[in-house]
Each structure stands twice: as C-alpha cells, then as structure tokens.
Amino acid sequence: MTRQSDGFTLVEVCLAIAVMAVGVLSMCGLYTLGYRENRQSVEDVASVAYADAYLSPLVQGLSATNMTWSKWCEIGENASSEMRAQGVADGVLPAGGWMAYVQEIDNGADYRIKGDPRSTADGAFNQVISQVESPYKGSRASLPSDYQYGLVVTRRGAVIQLAFRAARRKESLMTQPVIVAEVHFQGDPER
User: Fold this and answer.
1) How many separate helices (H) and strands (E) can be counted in the chain?
2) How many Cα atoms occupy the beta-carbon half-sphere of 41 within 13 Å?
3) 90 vs 173: CA distance, rounded Å
4) Which of 6, 41, 100, 152 could cysteine-pair with 163, CB 3.0–4.6 Å?
5) Cα torsion for 56, 57, 60, 62, to the nearest 10°?
6) pLDDT in tens, 31-67
7) 165: which strand partners?
C-alpha cells in the first residue's frame, strides 16, 4: 500500500522560506539604494537652482553690448603657459582654477578641499562683477549656509566659461557635476 501525501514536506517549506527570504532581503537593499539616489537627486536639483541664481548676474553683465574688449580681456588671471599652449585658457579665476579649491595631503597623491571654498568662489564672483556694468554689482545670490560651492571663470579669447559646483558637504564638492554657462563677447572689439 502506498501512502499519499496531502501537504508539503518540511524540506519544501524550508526551500520556500529561503526563496522568500532572498527576495525580501533584495527588496530591502533596493530601498536603501532608492533613498540614497533620491537624496542625491534633491541635492542635484538644488545645486542647479543655486547655479542659476549665482551665474545669472555674471551672464547678464558679461553679455552686455556695452562691455568693452579691454575690460573683457582683463577678466581672469594669466593662465599657465601649458593652458595657453593648448588653447584652453587665456585667463582664469581663481588663479589655480579648480585646483585653487584643493590642497594636497602629506603623500602628495591625495587631496582635500580647502577650509572655505565659498570665499574663494565669492572672490572670483566679485572680481568678474567688478569688471561689468550690471545692476547686480556688489550683490550676489545668497545660498544656504549648509551648501558649499565653487566657481571657476575661464576666458579663452572672446568666450568666457563660468563653471559652478555646489554640494551639502565640503568633502563631496569636487565630485559634484559641473554646471557651465558660456558667454560670447557681444561688444565691438575695437573699442
């Protein structure tokens, strides 16, 4: 006589529990990934909004048709001979570009962000805004105190490139995407 089973064996129940456990644990991992990505996207959106508020006065002033060629050519410190030779830049603010925001750690291979990147960015902003005719002269967008940001202004002939980064944590400033605005000279180069 054969015995017929109407239920599940203990082995089948254990296998079903193991499959469910793997699925549930995988879902838990996705929740943490989703949370981190959501937090990063919020920071990215805020960063773009802050870049727009910070760069708009510069773009407006540099785009003015009454901007003279001599003032245009004064924007930025002299670029390194390597940058000039490559045609990358004729002038740059701050003088070291993005390297002005970092300092080497003892071994020379690792870097960290300098103490106050906001003041370096504000210095570059003030140097550019002082060269232009703008209703924003002497003022700039106020960004939340919990955000760190950096600005690099690069002049290459008749083009000025404004590059901006913002991050909540100072340590992640250089890993953030760069928001760029380019301004082409609108005035008369003979003036």
Assistant:
1) 4, 7
2) 6
3) 25
4) 152
5) -110
6) 888 888 888 888 888 888 899 989 988 998 888 888 8
7) 150
On the question of pLDDT at 188 being above 80, the answer is: no
67 phi and psi, to 5 degrees?
A: -70, 125
Q: Write the single-letter amino acid at 3.
A: R
Chain centre to alpha carbon of residue 105: 22
Measuring CA to CA, how many Å separate 105 from each of 45, 176, 177? 31, 21, 23
Give this prediction's pTM: 0.76
Residue in the block written with tokens 């291979």: 109
The rounded distance, in Å, linking the Cα atoms of 113 and 6 is 68
Question: How far apart, in whole angstroms, are the C-alpha atoms of residue 187 and residue 169?
Answer: 40
Rounded to an integer, what distance in angstroms lies between the CA atom of residue 79 and that of residue 75?
11
Per the document, the length of the chain is 191
Distance in Å from the first CA to the final CA of the chain: 110
